[in-house]
Amino acid sequence: MQVPTCGASRYALLTGRSPRNSGVTRSNQAFYRGASALSTEQTAGAQTMPELFRRSGYQTACIGKISHTADGRVFEYNGSGDGRDELPHAWDELATPFGSWKRGWGIFFAYANGRSREDGSGIRDLMQFSVEEDEDLPDGLLAREAISKLQAYKKGEQPFFLGLGFFKPHLPFVAPQQDWEAISKIKIPDAPHPEKANSAYWHKSGEFYSYNMKFPKTRPLAERDRMQARRAYLACVRYVDRQVGKVLKALDDLGLSENTIVVVWGDHGWFLGDSALWAKHAPLERALNSTLIIRAPGVSQSGLKSDALVETLDLYPTLVDLCQPSFQKTEHPLDGVSLKPLLTGQKSKVRDYALSYWNTAVSVRDQSHRLTATMKKGRPTNVELYDLSETPDPVQNLAKEQPELVKQMLQAIPDMKRPKTD
C-alpha cells in the first residue's frame, strides 16, 4: 500500500493518485486540507472512485470509515467543524449509524455504553472487552446497517457501490468479551524480534503509548505485557472478521453474490511489538503490507492466491476495468494498473516494483527485498535494504553489502538524479 497511515493511504485508494503526484504522504494532508483538498464544486472529471460510479448511475452509500473521517463528514476529533462531505459529490447516502456515541469520531474511538476517547471524560484505556453482543459496539452496528442497505438494493434496479469501513482493529482495542475469551484460549507467537530496530525509520510508537495501560509502559514492553496487547489486537480482528462474515452471508442469502464484486482491503499494516514498534507510521515491511482479497464473479478464479506485487493505487483501475462504468473521465490520470489479469490467472505479475511513501521517504519493494531511502533533492540518504525472505523485520541492513541491488532498486524511484548514497 501507498502510505503507512490511514488518511493518506485512503486518499491514494479513492483518488487513484500516487503520493508522488498528489503530495499526500501524511493523513493531515488528505482530502480537505491544503493543495490536495478536493474541490467542493463538481469538476469535469470525477475526483474520486465513488463519484465516478455515482456519475455512472450507481447508488452509492458510505458506512463507516472509507475516507479519513469516521463517517464521511468533516469534523475534528472534538466535534468542531461544519460536517461537510469529505468526498464531494461521491455519496448518495452517508449512512453510518452512530448509536449511543452520537457522532463519527465518537463511534471510531468507542468504548462500551456510549463512552468514547473523545467524549471529554478522559477515558483512554488501551483495551476493553466487556460487552456481550456485537451490536453493543459500533462495528456490529455497521454490519447491521450494511445488511439493511443490501436488502434495499435487492429490491431496486440500479447497480450499487457500497463502501463499508469497519473500525477495528484500530486503537483502542475494544471488542465483545467472547472474542477476547476465544483468543485467550489460543497459543499465539510472540514478536520474533521484539528488540529495538537499528533503523533510521524506527519511532517511539507515540500513538500506542498514549493510551492508559494496566501494565508498565516500558520500551520494549515486558514479554507478558506484550503478549497481552497482541491478544487484544487479535481479539479485535476476530470481532471484525465475524462482521465481514455476516455481510458476505447476507449477499449469499439475498442472491446478490453472483453479480457483486467484493473487495476486502486494509489501509496499512501494523507493528505488534515487532522491532519494539507498535502501530504504523514507518516505511517498513510490516506497516506497508496490508490485506487484499478480491472476488469478481465470472472473472476471478476461486481460491487463487498470488504473490504478485500490487499497490493500493491499482484498485481504482481494476474496478473500472471490471465494471466498465459509463462515465470514465477522471479529474486526474489514474496512476495504478488493472489487476484483472491476475484475477483471471492470465498473468503472474503486473509490476516489477511497488512503491510507498512516508514524509520524505520512499520505499521500494521487489519480490524479495525492501529498500527504503529518504530523498533529498532527488538523492537518497538513510538507505536501508532488507531481505524479506529471511524476516519482515528490519534486522540486518544489507545496503553496504549489496550495492548493485541498491543501485537497481533506487532506479525504480521516480525523479532519482543519481544513485549516490550515504
TrEMBL record:
Its EC number is 3.1.6.1. InterPro entries: Alkaline_phosphatase_core_sf, IDS, Sulfatase_N. It comes from the Bacteria. It is an enzyme of class 3 (hydrolase). Gene3D superfamilies: Alkaline Phosphatase, subunit A. The keyword Transmembrane does not apply. GO terms for cellular component: cytoplasm. Keywords: Calcium, Hydrolase, Metal-binding, Signal. The keyword Metal-binding applies. SUPFAM superfamilies: Alkaline phosphatase-like (SSF53649). Residues 4-322 form the Sulfatase N-terminal domain. GO terms for molecular function: arylsulfatase activity; iduronate-2-sulfatase activity; metal ion binding. Transmembrane segments: none annotated. Its cofactor is Ca(2+). Belongs to the sulfatase family. This is Arylsulfatase. It comes from Gimesia panareensis.
